[in-house]
Amino acid sequence: MLTLGVYHTLKIDRSTQVGLFLTNGTDDVLLPLKYVPKTFEIGDELTVFVYLDHEERPVATTLKPYITLDDFAFLRVNYTNKFGAFLDWGLEKDLFVPFKEQAREMEQGKRYLVHLYLDKKTNRLVASSKLNQFLNLETASFQIGEEVHLIISHVTDMGINVIINGTHKGLVYKNEVYIDKIRPGDKTKGYIKLIRPDGKIDVTFTKVGVESIEENAQFVLDELKASRGFLRLTDNSHPEEIKTVLKMSKKAFKKAIGTLYRQKLIEIKEDGVYLVK
Question: Residue 213: what pLDDT?
Answer without folding.
Answer: 59
